[in-house]
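re: ur question from earlier - yeah i can do the single chain one, its not a big deal. heres the input i used so u can compare w yours
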Amino acid sequence: MRHFVFTAANCKENKAAIKRAKQVVENLEWHYDMNATCTGVYEGSTFKINPKDGGNTSVCVEDNDVYRLIETCMDFAREQERLRKEEG
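and the output i got, formated as tokens:
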């Protein structure tokens, strides 16, 4: 299963949003890797970033487990909002 969590046109007005979305993916992958190091279980789904999605940059989450997919999508939304608030 796949769910898109971010899409933005590749234009200068969206540079900050695209950079933030890529940072969210990096932060979550790091978080999931660190947890897996401690617990031996990777808790996140797979992220796919496509910078050339018809003139857009898109981020999708893929997983065969619907519950892990939903949780990862929610993690993406929470982390994106946290970074947005940090930016002011």
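The chain is about 55% helix and 25% strand. not sure if urs matches, ping me
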